[in-house]
Design a protein that fits this description.
Elements: H1 5-37, H2 68-100, H3 106-120, H4 124-138, E1 146-149, E2 152-155, E3 158-161, E4 163-166, H5 168-191, H6 198-215, E5 218-221, E6 224-226, E7 229-231, E8 234-236, H7 238-264, H8 268-276, H9 281-311, H10 323-334, H11 337-366
Antiparallel strand pairs: 1-2, 2-3, 3-8, 4-5, 6-7
Length: 371
């Protein structure tokens, strides 16, 4: 048995696994014993107790009488909101910066270079504190709010913009219709592979979505200034605006360099081939270069997106109630620090693994399949 390399490797791994399990068990039992000896409660029963927490803003409905677990869910929703918006905005801005950085125009290229270097070499916490302090010193009071666009105002109290109200029932029916359309398309292509159905299904899907949108009862809620504040619309507080703008500026610098490196990795022959076909520079980028660049930049972009989720914890510096801020308050009020740390580790691990799995799935979809 010991002469077999495979059996010996399995035996060594088994011994190491047993040692690891034994160490974890010893650590757990020792911790529980010490906590019980000091009269410190342990367990997750506190999650069903009224939280009495004050969460200044949230996507979900919340009140101080709600249990701890719902306060944690509200914090997770805030973190997901921040991460999703920063990922979307930084991807678009980074793509523009990365491509413009390669421009032959020295003004455009130089401006993008300054943005990228400042963003990449500034600590994000310093950037957030600077933007937050600047918000209160530059913007006017709410009575003299800047009118950036019709129905959009910005002041010391944040940004107010129109909102579209759609019933949850309509959204549910729309999502159900899209799911049925997607499953029907997959089944159609499975049973009739000889028929090129992509264009037909795209047309049918566009018509179905158009009919749904046309029949959805929706109304635009315009903000109106009454008294000393705006009523109606949607409000982005200075805290939320600061974390979104700061992390977007910071992340877009790294995304821009990733995009620039991916574009430079495409051979010059691809550009020459596009020019020989009479394509413009924009068409070459859109049809030839960027589709090949995606295969190169998706893995490093995945790392940056995971960093966005981790950097969202800096929202606590400007007072935005993200998941970590809610957990800090929960730990201090419930005295369940061990359980709170496990929840923090588990939630961030789940978010990052989910994001990584989605990026890896997309990377496999666009990868070149060798025969």
């Amino acid at each position: 048995m010991f002469n077999d390399v495979k059996a010996r490797a399995i035996a060594v791994q088994g011994v190491l696994l047993l040692v690891l399990i034994g160490f974890a068990t010893l650590l757990f039992t020792t911790t529980v014993t010490n906590l019980e000896a000091r009269g410190i409660p342990i367990g997750f029963d506190f999650l069903t107790m009224p939280s009495r927490l004050v969460i200044s803003e949230s996507m979900l409905s919340y009140g101080p009488r709600d249990p701890y677990y719902w306060a944690i869910v509200v914090g997770i929703a805030n973190t997901i909101l921040i991460s999703a918006l920063v990922i979307g905005f930084s991807s678009i801005i980074g793509l523009i910066l990365g491509i413009t950085r390669l421009s032959s125009n020295p003004l455009a290229s130089g401006t993008c270079k300054v943005w990228i270097e400042v963003a990449r070499n500034t600590p994000p916490i310093v950037l957030l504190i600077f933007l937050y302090s600047l918000w209160w010193k530059v913007l006017p009071p709410i009575t003299e709010a800047f009118n950036l666009a019709p129905g959009t105002y910005v002041s010391m109290r944040g940004m107010v913009m129109p909102s579209v109200n759609i019933s949850l029932q309509s959204i549910g029916w729309g999502l159900l219709g899209l799911a049925i359309l997607f499953l029907g398309a997959r089944a159609f292509r499975t049973f009739f592979p000889q028929i090129h159905s992509r264009s037909i299904l795209t047309l049918v899907g566009a018509v179905a979505i158009g009919i749904w949108v046309a029949n959805v009862p929706a109304n635009v809620d315009w903000p109106v200034f009454t008294g000393f504040s705006f009523r109606g619309g949607i409000t982005l507080t200075p805290e939320l605006s600061t974390i979104l703008v700061g992390l977007t500026i910071y992340t877009s610098g790294f995304v821009a360099e990733i995009v620039r490196g991916g574009v430079l990795a495409i051979g010059k022959g691809q550009w020459d081939a596009g020019r020989s076909l009479g394509l413009s520079r924009t068409s070459i980028l859109r049809l030839i270069v960027i589709p090949q660049t995606l295969r190169i930049i998706v893995p490093p972009l995945n790392s940056q997106y995971i960093n966005v989720v981790k950097n969202s914890t800096l929202a606590i510096a400007v007072g935005y109630p993200d998941f970590l801020a809610v957990m800090n308050t929960t730990i201090s009020k419930s005295s369940h620090s061990i359980e709170g740390l496990f929840i923090i580790l588990g939630v961030y691990l789940a978010l990052n693994l989910t994001l990584s799995a989605a990026a890896n799935w997309y990377n496999r979809r666009i990868a070149i399949v060798e025969r």
